[in-house]
């Protein structure tokens, strides 16, 4: 009988695996690390090559759809390295009796740091100033003071709360929108989304991607936003309708945007976002620090082993 297989497909977890491989193999499993080849994720068809042997996977943004679950009859658990769960067909997993877990709470500080890095780049123009000085110029970019400005956070979980801490350190006024938070128990005012959009100078998206948040920021909601406002998305790309955002940025209905995530990743070469001067572009890398990777990887392996020995 062949040895049951554990796949590790998340790039960051692959880097950390040497610290943890023995813990998994001691339980009698083979651990396989397929080569991503510069890509961000595997398709369901690629993962199905491991079919009957596969009992567990520590996954990144892989396509874990119904086809995947139907084709892996011995699968016991999926550990989604990181926070996002939108690439997983949860209904199909439940039908197959597969436990799906992520690693919640491991990246709050890192993503909050990234959000403020984006904010500072937007309002102080550091990227543009750096490029100009390298060309021999000496620009005097007029920025925006953060103290006293309102920052609205959409999604007040672990990441949202860390963003609020940093905003308070900058003497900003903070409000948040989250339908799952009890306003009476919150350390910041919880307001309706429309009010947050209409009154905030800075809007940071930190919510999960769910059916309720898919295309949340669209033309109708962008019409509520102040023309001097800045939008930062460290959540998931499909929370924002990019064509509507591009239209608002091009026509002065929004001062600027910083995007760590996109509807399609990597960002297509022909995306108009690449041409806009009032946009700061990231590469879905807001959580990627040495300390964060170590923390998330240890948690992922802990959860994997918990599920395997049940």
TrEMBL record:
- Cellular component terms (Gene Ontology): cytosol
Limits of the D-isomer specific 2-hydroxyacid dehydrogenase NAD-binding domain = 117-286
This protein's UniProt keywords: NAD, Oxidoreductase
Annotated GO molecular function terms are: glyoxylate reductase (NADPH) activity; hydroxypyruvate reductase [NAD(P)H] activity; NAD binding
- The D-isomer specific 2-hydroxyacid dehydrogenase catalytic domain sits at 55-302
Specify the superkingdom. Bacteria
The keyword Membrane is annotated on this UniProt entry: no
The record's similarity note reads:
Belongs to the D-isomer specific 2-hydroxyacid dehydrogenase family.
Record protein name field: Hydroxyacid dehydrogenase
The organism is Mycobacterium sherrisii
